[in-house]
Amino acid sequence: MALVETLLMHVSTTGALLAVVLLFLVVYLFSFSSSSPGDPPGPKPLPLLGNLLLLDLRQLHMSLWELSKKYGPVFKVHIGRKKVVVLAGHKTVKQALVNQAEEFGERDITPIFHDVNQGFGIIFANGDSWKEMRRFAISTLRDFGMGKKLSEEKIIDETRYLREVLEKFQGNPFDTTDPMNYAVSNIISAIVYGKRFEYDDPQFQDMVKRSNQIIHMAGSVMIQVYNIFPALGPWIRSWRLLMKILESTRGEMQKKVNVLRGTLNPLNCRGFIDAFLIRKQSKQESDLHFHDHNLLITLSNLFTAGTDTSGMTLRWGLMLMAKYPHIQDRVHEEIDQVLAGHEPVTEDRKNLPYTCAVIHEIQRMANIIPLNIPHKTSCDVHFNGYFIKKGTCVLPLLTSVLKDENEWETPNTFNPNHFLDEKGQLIKRDAFMPFSAGRRVCAGEGLARMELFLFFTSLLQHFHFTPPPGVSEDDLDLTPVVGLNLNPSPHKLCAIIRQKTTRLIHHSTG
After folding, report:
1. How far apart are CA 401 and CA 408, in angstroms?
2. Which residue has the higher pLDDT, 186 or 151?
3. Are 299 and 255 in contact (CB under 8 A)?
4. Residue 478 CB: number of other CB atoms within 10 A?
5. How many angstroms separate the CA atoms of 291 and 296, rounded?
6. What is the Cα–Cα distance from 447 to 145, expressed in whole angstroms?
7. Residues near 50 by Cβ (< 8 Å), separated by ≥ 6?
8. What is the mean pLDDT of the chain?
9. In the prediction, which pLDDT does 381 show?
10. Sign of CA dihedral 459, 460, 461, 463
11. Helix ranges restricted to H, 324-409
């Protein structure tokens, strides 16, 4: 710093600043090493910028996928100064996440998710706190019906509320965003708070809106710039606004927690929050992670992950049905034949192979989380002939798995036959990884699968989805809006009630 002070005394302010920048740049150049022995291949980085000039931050998953075609299934890039190892293709991703799950099982936490989660919760955390919260979340969600009869009843009840909302549009065009998000969010609400909310409840609407804003803003280009140069945070409007939304969200959640705390009865556990508070009261040494801050972060994780991804997948599903009416017709036919008018239940999955194949293909094509959530090596790793140091950020590119040309017959085409055998029965595909895999596989996978089946099947049983009048199937744009997730482009659909149509036909022919 003495050199810096000397510069400031003898030159102009502008000159001094330039000298300081040059000084730090020189230090950086001497300290920067683009490769180490045994490193995977990759493009040569520039000082400070790394390989940013080769990457489109608006479609980072596509940029990385293109680079994999040049450098292979294991390669490195520098995002700013940060070295990232990218894994591409089903075999490579499975080898890391499943076969070497421990070595690749840590979470790499970017600056924005450190700000958001502060090392707590179940998604962006590591160590004992993560292990305890994930274990508790999975066991408690199961206790409250995740993948069981109780959860099924909650979802079936919610499908009725959702259908009522769609019926009110009377076949006119509507945006599917809010109805799908409200329905899915109510499942999490019922499990967490022990109750659902009315769709027109302003507080509930605000809660869902804030959750969507957090996801959208966290994936914006400016927040990615912040992740690369975190010192810029206070000068980035998106970062300041995101911090404000988070503060407001946690304040509202804390109020709900306090209400439940005031009426807590250990003999009548109403939901996830009650279970957490009861565990907190035990005050055992092993329960040191059970404090309100960890509860609020975990609740945020559950709502954000549970609402955004499932709601978005349903929106993709309805849009794809409107775009491919011949596939929708086959779903209608199978549902009518198998269900014969009764409401779908989880047990019906085994008798609806085509419908289930369509849901799987929706998840594959939607490719909701294309980059996956970043991993980090927990130790030095020898992998596919390369050496990856402990603490290296690793991106298992889910896009390259769900659209792997070596695994899927028509990877870029919506084709439910990917999941059907020659007899028309549902088959498992090893490369079907919409929930990731290994130690960090989605904790709510069982619940999400049940939600997607029951909501989708119920909606297709009662409605026929079409583009708005004057809009053709070809006009429905499948180009996603890219952020942390891949959202459908803004669009509207019409939900035509099928039962009434059938009754009208019967009446007119009688």
Report:
1. 9
2. 186
3. no
4. 14
5. 9
6. 9
7. 77, 78, 79, 80, 81, 82
8. 88
9. 96
10. positive
11. 325-339, 353-366, 398-402
pLDDT the model gives residue 9: 39
Can you tell me the distance from the alpha carbon of 491 to that of 479, in angstroms, rounded to the nearest whole number? 11
User: How big is the CA angle at 336 (ends 334 and 342), to the nearest 5 degrees?
Assistant: 125
Q: For Cα atoms 429, 416, 458, give the angle at the middle one, nearest 5 degrees.
A: 105
Q: Using alpha carbons only, what angle is made at residue 491 by residues 246 and 465, rounded to the nearest 5 degrees? A: 120
Question: DSSP code of 96?
Answer: I
| Closest among 458, 457, 467 to 489, alpha carbons compared | 467
d(CA 327, CA 420): 14
Dist CA 483 CA 217 (whole Å): 8
Rounded Cα distance between 214 and 188, Å, is 17
Residue 76 bridge partners (DSSP): 85
Q: What is the pTM of this model?
A: 0.89
| 170 vs 495: CA distance, rounded Å | 8
Burial 309-348, CB ≥16 within 10 A → b, else e: bbbbbbbbbbbbbbbbeebbebbbebbeebbeeeebbbeb
Element (H, E) at 486: strand 486-487
Query: Cα(65)–Cα(405) distance, rounded to whole angstroms?
Result: 12
Give per-residue pLDDT as tens, 439-467.
999 888 888 999 999 999 999 999 999 99
pLDDT of residue 286: 59
Cα separation, 234 vs 23, whole angstroms = 24
Question: Taking residues 107-128, what's their average pLDDT?
Answer: 93
Contacts of 213 (CB under 8 A, 6+ apart): 242, 245
